[in-house]
């Protein structure tokens, strides 16, 4: 995911343990398209059925409150896909839909082996939402040059050939 989500925390109990999770939820029930001539996103219809909801547990979890106070937690390893049959734990999104990343701070037991987080609502947690992080998921970037490459190879050759001669 680019740009990478990075968060920091303060005000936590130093010796308590916490898991840091991310999920990405739809912002609305619309599908979008990009209008190049206007350089903006436009509503293109009703949203596709939502992708299966998944939680991404930060691989360094659990953290102590002291660790979270001293470091920035980066979600640089989170992977996104549009394949709803994904079996690799990637977060599943629908292309051309708007999404909101959310960060969840989950209190974990202070001792012993903590059970896996299956249902976030059954865990003591706090959710953080950053409206400035809303984005539109895309599977491929399109521009006029890639359009030329994709379907007009002879024109591509002519363009490159004419540039070489000059």
TrEMBL record:
Keywords: DNA-binding, Nucleus, Transcription, Transcription regulation. GO terms for cellular component: chromatin; nucleus. InterPro entries: p53-like_TF_DNA-bd_sf, T-box_DNA-bd, T-box_sf, TF_T-box. One of its GO terms (molecular function) is DNA-binding transcription factor activity, RNA polymerase II-specific. The keyword Ribonucleoprotein does not apply. Its main location: nucleus. It holds the Pfam family T-box. It is found in: Nucleus. The keyword Transferase does not apply. GO terms for biological process: cell fate specification; heart development; positive regulation of DNA-templated transcription. Residues 1-144 form the T-box domain. This is T-box transcription factor TBX20. It comes from Temnothorax longispinosus. The lineage of its organism: Eukaryota, Metazoa, Ecdysozoa, Arthropoda, Hexapoda.
